[in-house]
Design brief:
By secondary structure, the protein is an alpha/beta fold. Helix content is 31%, strand content 27%. A hairpin with a 2-residue loop joins strand 8 and strand 9. Helix 1 packs across helix 4 and helix 6 crosses helix 7.
Length: 421
Amino acid sequence: MNDRNAPAPAAPEDPGPLAAFAALLTPEGRELLGLVAGTAPGEELALATRLRRAHPAALVSAALGQERLRARAVAKFGAGDAARMFFTAHGLEQSTRTSVAAHRAARLASLGVRSVADLCCGIGGDALALARAGIRVLAVDRSPLTCAVARANAAALGLADLVEVREAEVTEVDTRGYGAVFVDPARRAPAGRGGRGGGNVRVFDPEAYSPPLSWAVGAARTAPYAALKIAPGIPHEAIPEDVETEWVSERGDVKEAVLWFGTGRPASRRATLLPSGAALAVPLDRMLPDPEVRPVGRYLYEPDGAVIRAHLVAEVARQVGGGLLDATIAYVTADEPHPTPYATAYEITDQLPFNVKKLKALLRERGVGTLTVKKRGSAVEPEELRRKVKPEGPRAATVFLTRVAGAPTMLIGAPVTFEQN
């Protein structure tokens, strides 16, 4: 007889994230990872159906999920490392790009550091870079899953002898005996104190970091050297007055800021541009005042994002003999072309008050079909402008939507190519 109140059949027990990850490290899990490698999104369903005939469904799903993360990780870690490493979605999102981590590891190695306590290590991106620089690492995180992933990554890349992964509250770890401390606090909420777990809401208050900035600064001061990673947009008034603060960009995209302790350099602001490694550093007591606002010259210089974050636009203006288009906007204008690694130069051909119809007519007259739209101080979205002007033709141009002495303005021009010495 049918009993409508009878309990429903129990669903297969969820093994939990840690157990699911551990299963990927078994011979069967590694076999599945090999079988799903390179699977295109449109092929997943058919492949999963076939593999579930011989393997547990949960393990197949875990392998496919890991393959998706590895595909996303190529942008940060490169194809070779990403294909061997392990990830969680949150860990991948929060991890440091390899090029940036390698830059920081090289700086620590150049200081003579041979051991580092990496607090809030996440999935191990920075620990791996430090180990590749020949530095012994204690990698600490409070999340059991995150620690398991970091440990697996060190093994996968042949660095397990240099990386010790410890599951602990970072605030309770004794860092005495290590040559340097590196702290990368979680900057998303909600987040548990002392680890990298948490949600996807970005935190802007440094004291809401996990652990808080004040604790991280205190921990940094206990070691001969220290590097403390912070959000690039941190208010400058929240930065300790006696540290070197470095903003790092890669191909113009600002990736992070770091407080450096014990380097022997004066308190300063520094912008480092990767992959070139060009670095602009100015001691705090030699920072220039904001440049004067001046009329539009023949050339416009767009400072790198790291230069802007470091408040070093005035230094670029001094180098190129220029001034600002507007007191509140980081575009520099000058009358002469001057090569600088810290800004992209454009030759300006036209200056117009903001008017879409006039811009459309000008572009049609010039035969511009490839239009690059840049903006600072304008609410107009680049894609919206492109749809309205419908560029057509064989030529290319760049339009800047900005303000000149407070007035909405369009500047049209093209990048300047300088001869290499």
